[in-house]
Amino acid sequence: AMVRHYKFNVVVKNVTRLCSTKPIVTINGKFPGPTIYAREDDTVLIKVVNHVKYNVSIHWHGIRQLRTGWADGPAYITQCPIQPGKVYMYNFTLTGQRGTLWWHAHILWLRSTLHGALVILPKLGVPYPFPKPHTEKVLVLSEWWKSDTEAIINEALKSGLAPNVSDAHTINGHPGPVQHCASGGYKLQVQAGNSYLLRIVNAALNEELFFKIAGHQLTVVEVDAVYTKPFKTDTIVIAPGQTTNVLLKANRAAGKYLVAASPFMDSPIAVDNVTATATLHYSGSLSSTITTLTSLPPKNATPVATTFTDSLRSLNSKKYPARVPQKVDHSLFFTVSLGVNPCPTCVNGSKVVAAINNVTFVMPKVSLLQAHYFNISGVFTDDFPSKPPVVYDFTGTQQPANLRTNRGTRLYRLAYNSTVQLVLQDTGMITPENHPIHLHGFNFFVVGRGQGNFNPKRDTKKFNLKDPVERNTVGVPSGGWTAIRFRADNPGVWFMHCHLEIHTTWGLKMAFVVDNGKGPNESILPPPSDLPKC
Ligand code: C2O
Predict the structure, then answer these.
(1) Any idea where the Plastocyanin-like domain is (predicted)?
(2) Rounded to two decimals, what is the model's pTM?
(3) Residue with the nearest Cα to atom 3 of ligand 1?
């Protein structure tokens, strides 16, 4: 295994999109940011130098960080932020991991422009479990705002209302040729007869996306850096935080074909947004016309999303077995919901909040991992409820009279190496909503999923404990539930939150603490000497 060195200069750069120019925070002046390349088991050292006026921290989304929680990145969870003018060296090893992951800022709303792909190739000489593609391409899907995203979220928090939605989606940084005022767009260059591995990342702040290429089928081979049983589809569905690898065969008449990313939002109050486009270019094609899509799913096309999600299975081969926990030590039931709390200074005298088990998470002033490691009292408690303190009708047909949530920095303690089953239930408080829940430090198996209220007697029997998909971010369906299982084999403090940025901001987050403090493998390593101070 190798040691790979990267330098990330956090700098402001003027960028023009949708006919207007604005300064954005970037890594090394790039949008999207640079792709990190490494191989399984390599060690990666990334020196982050903060040249901007904001506090910064970077998260390596999906990297397990075995015993190196100090490098995970979420501000005030595993580290204090890197202050202006300061430097922090992220140092971690890609033990047993390969595939497409990504990195992003994990503080404020900086991830709107601070994000990029993290590609982990298999060990030298180890083939993919699918036919070798001719070439690989990274496609980062994201959003673009004409105004400053920090101003947008600050305004929303002041008013207590929902923030403005983005002005466009982007593919590799560009809204594409269909968007008014956009020039060009990303060109995906291919050669007839070849096949390509597309590494697709959804880096959008607040939108799940459909992704489609006119005239071409896609074969899904991996999600969240775990191989899947290959299956063909014409549409993929990808939530913020998720990554999906597909094989694309350039098997059509040489020409130009439209590539599109459009919103999937089935919440009844969802605001629409603009489709991003790019073009698939066959080399040598002289035609100037672009073959367009015959159809794109409407934004509320839940059945399209469900069909896609239900097709996902772990590869579960001899070489890549699915190690699904068959017995459960901790059985947890968490509701994910929005709520309303009083706010005298807000527009309506109240503000929108979000919660897990009715707890709206309050960010601490020093990092939870430091508080845990150095035994600093008064930073958090470990009494996070294992089930909701209030009984809801989760279908949303009946709203509880009280939409108020409790506030707290409460964690749930897991014994090292214990097994966990967690049922995540959407509640329909204010509105049902699809919540892409991301767990740091672990992959988990998605053993079940359904509509309405989770019924333990009926639903547990139907769990797939053989070849469920393994991932790090999963959508809890609108008005439904998702069940996951994982083994708590990574000591540290691990954040779990909705990857719709606004829901995280509103408090839809909590953390697990895993540590027996017993032996070298059951405890985290000491903090690095340059760990930022608060
Ligand atoms: Cu990709 Cu806690 O985030």
Answers:
(1) 12-123, 137-285, 383-517
(2) 0.97
(3) 61
